[in-house]
């Protein structure tokens, strides 16, 4: 049987894929635990989503490695990696929604602080990792 933390993460992935705005109560119910138990492992919704992202990265990297190592034929490797990518993409689709929401928030914040640089002392230093990405996306709209 899976440990409680893994069960919560797996349940969160299922619930958030159905409804990204679903409550943590729904995640706890799906996992078969009390909400208090969920909060013992994850202090916030954001912490749970971060753990889901880490799980996705680990799972998808493993799937890609297994697909690559399953054959020495480059065409077969690409085919298997494509299928692995599709499977990972379907399982973790809610993270794409989360990334889209993050992108909108960053773009809005950058437009709002357009008179400053992403590394300015007025508090917008958190934008630095997203600056090129958000500026190029917002300027192409």
What is the topological layout?
Blueprint: H1 4-18, H2 24-31, H3 35-41, H4 45-69, H5 74-91, H6 93-112, H7 131-139
Protein name: TetR/AcrR family transcriptional regulator
InterPro entries: Homeodomain-like_sf, HTH_TetR
Keywords: DNA-binding
Your description of this structure?
It is built from seven helices and no strands. The chain is an all-alpha fold. The protein has a single domain (4-103), classed as Tetracycline Repressor, domain 2 (Orthogonal Bundle), CATH 1.10.357.10.
Mean pLDDT comes to 76
What is the second-level CATH architecture? Orthogonal Bundle
Helix content: over 70%
Tell me about the largest β-sheet.
Answer: none
* Uncertain spans: 101-106, 115-141
User: Looking at CATH, which topology would you report?
Assistant: Tetracycline Repressor, domain 2
**Helix and strand element order:** HHHHHHH
Provide a count of the helices.
7
Report the CATH superfamily.
Tetracycline Repressor, domain 2
Can you tell me the overall shape? elongated
Quaternary class = single chain
Keywords: DNA-binding
Domain HTH tetR-type: 22-50
GO molecular function: DNA binding
Protein name: TetR/AcrR family transcriptional regulator
